[in-house]
Structures are given as structure tokens and as C-alpha cells.
Design goal:
Layout: E1 4-5, E2 9-12, E3 15-18, H1 31-36, E4 45-56, E5 69-73, E6 81-85, E7 97-107, E8 112-122
């Protein structure tokens, strides 16, 4: 199971935004390769190009079953998706394409592979 984390949060013009850099120059993989490949190892740093298809933010008065975040796919309408937790998911826009630079690492307490978003760039 892959989980992604967005790091530090800053306020920009009164609106919260994750304090992330632009996407870096890393090897490109497809979302399908990322999800299904056994050759992708912990400590790999990669780029993926995806469309944000859903933004989810739980309001403070509701008990939610999942973390705030985004759901991404290779393209709009694609059935294979990945949910990525995000500190401030509204920094992203639905139906927009992004390049994410991600680091894959192994989390011993959960015994699973996790994703950390290092940066992103808007593509459209």
C-alpha cells in the first residue's frame, strides 16, 4: 500500500499552501508502474504525471474515514487511481494535470511502502 505525505505548510496570501518546490529532474514512471511494479524500491525518487480527479477535505465538525488529500489518475476517467494525503488539498485543482516528484520509502511501524511528495509542477 502506498501512502503519500505533504510536508510543511505555510500561509500564502491568507490561504494555506504546502511549502513544496517545483518538480525535479527524476526518472519518469506511469501511475500504473508505480502502483504495480515490484522493481520500484524504497528510497527511489521518481516523477509521475497525473490528473487530480478528486479533492477531499474533511471539515472540523465531521468524523471522516480518510485523510484530507487528493485522488489522482493517469487521465480523467481512468479507473486506476491513487489517493494521496495532503496537508492542504485545495492547493490543487480538479481536472488539472501535475508532475509530482516523489520519494518512496519504507515505513517500519506500518510495514509498508510510503510516498513523500518532494515537489510538483502544474502541466496544463
Amino acid at each position: 500500500m502506498l501512502t503519500a505525505l505533504l510536508a510543511a505548510c505555510a500561509t500564502v496570501s491568507g490561504r494555506k499552501r504546502a511549502d513544496l518546490s517545483q518538480a525535479g529532474n527524476y526518472p519518469q514512471v506511469t501511475l500504473q508502474q508505480l502502483i504495480e511494479s515490484s522493481s520500484i524500491q524504497a528510497r527511489d525518487t521518481l516523477n509521475i504525471e497525473v490528473v487530480v480527479i478528486e479533492i477531499f477535505k474533511c471539515d472540523d465538525t465531521t468524523v471522516c474515514n480518510r485523510e484530507d488529500g487528493i485522488t489522482v489518475a493517469e487521465s480523467a476517467g481512468d479507473e486506476q487511481t491513487l489517493q494521496i494525503p495532503a496537508v492542504e488539498p485545495y492547493q490543487f485543482e480538479r481536472n488539472r494535470e501535475y508532475r509530482f516528484s516523489i520519494e518512496i520509502y519504507y515505513d517500519e511501524p506500518t510495514n509498508s511502502s510510503e510516498l513523500r511528495i518532494l515537489g510538483y509542477s502544474l502541466l496544463q
